[in-house]
What does this fold into?
Amino acid sequence: MNDLAGQGNYGPSAAEWDARAADAERTGDGVEAELCRQYAEHWFRVSRGED
It folds into this structure.
């Protein structure tokens, strides 16, 4: 888990969400893979202060 600028726990990083998406895709769960990709994108935007 990551701590972003002392603002608390933001959960898994974008890279971790991407890894989860890849795992889901390998098991044939396209819905879970897409969900994880969306979390990765959101985390990336939040970490850059864009969201």
Confidence is low (pLDDT under 50) at residues 1-8. The two ends are 20 Å apart (CA to CA). Residues 18 and 37 are 6 Å apart (CA to CA). The chain is about 60% helix and 0% strand.
